[in-house]
Design goal:
By secondary structure, this protein is α+β, with helices and mostly antiparallel strands. The chain has eight helices and 20 strands. The protein has a nine-stranded mixed β-sheet with strand order 1-2-4-3-7-11-9-10-12, sandwiched between helices. Strand 16 and strand 17 form a beta hairpin. Helix 3 packs across helix 4. The mean pLDDT is 97.
């Protein structure tokens, strides 16, 4: 195991942060898998799993099992880790400007494509190397200003060369689920089965330029830009939602870390063999995911547990009006798995109350939560 620390400037004079990267195996070996936790710094499950995964990888490396290369960032957002307001951690949004730490990553497609004009060949693997070099050059041309942009730039640079990227997150309360692009699904399907995902949400563009799409998106864009040359998907990237915020548990985290280790075996990063279990779900379009919203303010309770298959028209939640005592039902308008909900039980009008993974697309525009 090799450790590297990147020094990140703080907002004020004399303040700095560090991003730790742990590297396993030969840095030039393939496949290269990059794993990070805590980009939303108030989401502990991803940081726990990333830390425990690093421990398992250190054991595997000592046993001579590394065939590929793995990089792990146990806490990807030291800026957000330092944001504690009145005793509560606030790590999803930058308190300086309100921006989501998992949005606004640069789209390198156009700059990389410009650098590839007249250079692509008939050899798919040669083209993968050329595209990776062009993406690195496009990133290096950008000069980040301020700590948050420096962090985005650094994290992109760490992951840009990887064949597979796992960005570990969680929801308020949730079943295991993941987000990815359709082109990446075949490579990531074994991960979904090994982690027992109850929902897989696919979108070509989800909106907001999140980290995972900034890595895999340019490959599909460049392939479309040069249809006469074979350009395979050089990076399959996903956002893995490790249940809910309170699910920080070493026992559960170890099971999740072991599931990722099994996935690394499947990819050939680690020696060994693994049997894939049956899939717990089929992928559905992110555009078919219904976000239930509160029609009024009040106290929130749920009529069905997480993981339930709900039908269109079924009552999923109820809001109790504290002034009148009226109970207002919140019904699903689509059929699918009820896979996520907030951790709080006080609702304001318009609050998102849960997500249902339906198989019929009905939304457009930005598809992710703010």
């Amino acid at each position: 195991m090799r450790e590297r620390c990147f020094s990140l400037p703080g907002r004020g004079p004399g303040t700095r942060h560090q991003v730790l990267t742990l590297s396993f195996g030969d840095p030039d070996a393939r496949p290269h898998v990059h794993v990070q936790g805590g980009l939303h710094a108030d989401e502990g499950p991803g940081m726990m799993v990333a830390r425990l995964l690093a421990d398992l990888l250190a054991q595997a490396e000592a046993a001579g099992r590394l065939r590929g290369h793995v990089t792990v960032v146990p806490f990807a957002n030291p800026l957000g880790l330092g944001q504690v307001l009145h005793g509560d951690h606030s790590g999803r949004f930058d308190l300086y400007d309100g921006r989501n730490f998992n949005r606004d990553y640069p789209d390198l497609s156009d700059d990389a494509a410009a650098g590839l004009e007249g250079r692509l060949t008939g050899d798919p693997q040669r083209n993968v190397a050329l595209v990776r070099a062009a993406l690195r050059a496009a990133l290096q041309q950008r000069q980040p200003v301020g700590p948050a942009e420096a962090l985005r730039h650094h994290l992109m640079g760490l992951a840009l060369d990887a064949d597979v990227v796992l960005d570990l997150h969680c929801d308020g309360e949730a079943e295991m689920h993941l987000y990815t692009q359709p082109a990446a699904w075949d490579r990531l399907a074994p991960l979904a089965t090994l982690t027992a995902c109850r929902a897989v949400l696919l979108a070509e563009v989800s909106g907001g330029h999140p980290f995972d799409e900034a890595l895999s998106g340019p490959w599909t864009a460049i392939a479309a830009r040069f249809p006469d040359h074979p350009v395979p998907l050089g990076c399959a990237s996903t956002t893995v939602e490790l249940r809910g915020r309170s699910d920080v548990c070493r026992t559960q985290g170890l099971r999740d870390a072991q599931a990722i280790m099994d996935y690394l075996v499947h990819l050939g990063v680690l020696s060994g063999s693994v049997d894939l279990p049956p899939a717990a779900c089929s992928p559905t379009p992110l555009a078919g995911s219904e976000a239930l919203t509160a029609p009024a303010a009040g106290l929130l309770s749920y009529a069905v547990p997480l993981g339930s298959l709900v039908q269109a028209g079924q009552t999923v939640a109820e809001i109790t009006d504290l002034e009148t005592g009226q109970v207002i039902p919140v019904r699903a308008s689509t059929t699918g798995v009820f896979y996520a909900r907030p951790a709080t039980r006080i609702a304001e009008a318009g609050k998102r109350l849960g997500k249902i993974a339906g198989d019929r697309p009905f939304r457009d525009g930005p598809l992710l939560s703010p």
